[in-house]
Amino acid sequence: MELIKNLLDEFKHYFPGNDDIRVFFAPGRVNLIGEHTDYNGGYVLPAALSKGTYMAVSLRSDREFYLRSANFPDLKINFSLDELVYKKEDDWGNNPKGVISELKKAGASIKGADIYYYGNIPNGAGLSSSASIGMVTAFGLSHMYKLPADIKKIALICQNMENDFIGVNTGIMDQYSVGFGKKEHAIFIDCGSMTHELVPLHLGDYKFVITNTNKRRGLADSKYNERREECEKGLLEIQKSYPVCQTLSDVSLEMFEKVKENLNPTIRKRVRHVVTENRRVIDAVSELKSGNLKTFGKLMVASHESLRDDYEVTGEHLDALFDAQKTCAGCIGTRMTGAGFGGCTISIVHKDNVPSFKKSVKNNYESQTGLEPNFYICEVGDGVKEITKEGIV
Q1: Whole-number Å distance between alpha carbons of 54 and 49
Q2: Which of 205, 213, 217, 247 gives 41 a disulfide partner, CB atoms 3.0 to 4.6 angstroms apart?
């Protein structure tokens, strides 16, 4: 609990004289397979990480909020309940500000707070640091304000924040997996029905290795919204033949084959990715349940290839990692994870091969891009929670 002690010491440094402090945690997440399917009403298979965002918070008697972060010590964010507006200069602080705005819009009786954050997941790497910040804020303040702390509702609040306050048209996967994560399990989510199933994740002698391209990508500045619009155009065209389809995930492979010639070449590729990726997720869940980790790994590779060729969201840096990793000894699966346009890959590597994997990938990637990658051995952890002196609530 040394981390928590340091967090509380730092809180008291910034906000002295207040001992009524509570601590909350929300993980980052890594998506194992099922990319760009969530906002199309489809299937995803993420897992929560053991790393994430910690929040120490104490309520105030006025309407003022004071936000500080160990990760951005020079940025001081102050605002009141009367000025909950997006400001570019507030950077990461817009996420908690947006959450507070959503809580206020929902009619919650709230007041100001002093809040201190510490995150140990790489910002902008595609491991959902923004959803982690949003969820820990929404979950923590819901408890502090004695509001209903239903995880699904909190996830929807945070999705609304991303969509309406930040202006990024994300699906629900990130917030949902941060909320419902469980140690040693993946989360099979049906984003259309907002239901999930926990799937045991037995890696045996293998490890998840996350590799960061160190090419930071900002979702709002990327082609994320463009891809979503392309999917919507594809759905409208398909509905002329199949009006029963409410989302692209209602389109079967057989339907796609019958209507694909009606779609322009670009839209056709986008739709093909969504339809085939949904099938890969269903197959991946089946393989995990049967303990077929190597077959699961092959599905990861196929997912990356579809994201590269049909959805076109990988780019030079992610493809350089993918090409270097898929031929490494002991690597049975690898793919980009997250929205793309930079960020991370996730690989399944035999524990005995991890050192040689890192060395080989580093050398190949540096020679191609001039950038040095970072590697993280990924442990699967629990979802959002409160942390007390006695342990976890």
Answers
A1: 13
A2: 247
pLDDT tens by residue, 241-294: 999 999 999 999 999 999 999 999 999 999 999 999 999 999 999 999 999 999
In angstroms, the CA 217 to CA 308 distance is 16
Q: Give the residue with greater pLDDT, 377 vs 392.
A: 377
Residue 116: how many other CB atoms lie within 10 Å:
24
DSSP 357: H
Q: Tell me the angle at which helices 151-160 and 173-180 cross, rounded to the nearest 10 degrees.
A: 150
Q: Which residue has the tokens 């796609």?
A: 256
Q: What letter represents residue 160's amino acid?
A: N
Is 130 known to sit in a ligand binding site?
yes
Residues with Cβ within 8 Å of residue 143, at least 6 apart in sequence: 22, 24, 149, 386
Is 69 annotated to bind ligand? Answer: yes
Please say whether the beta carbons of 187 and 176 come within 8 A.
yes
Please, which residues have CB within 8 angstroms of residue 370's CB and are 6 or more apart in sequence?
Answer: none
Task: Work out the number of other CB atoms within 10 angstroms of the CB of residue 42.
Answer: 27
Active site residues: 174
Instruction: Report the DSSP pairing between strands 64-69 and 113-119.
Output: parallel
Q: What confidence tens digit (pLDDT) does each residue in 85-116 have?
A: 999 999 999 999 999 999 998 888 899 999 99
Using an 8 Å Cβ cutoff, are 314 and 308 in contact? yes
User: Does 102 appear as a known binding residue?
Assistant: no
Look at the block and give the residue holding tokens 């995150």: 119
Find out whether 154 and 132 touch, Cβ atoms under 8 Å: no
Q: Which has the closest alpha carbon to 34: 186, 181, 154?
A: 186
Scan for tokens 């959002």, then name that residue. Answer: 384
Q: If DSSP states are collapsed to H, E and C, what string results for 296-335?
A: HHHHHHHHHHHHHHCCCCCHHHHHHHHHHHCCCCCEEEEE
Domains, the chain, with CATH or none: 2-201+381-392 (3.30.230.10), 206-378 (3.30.70.890)
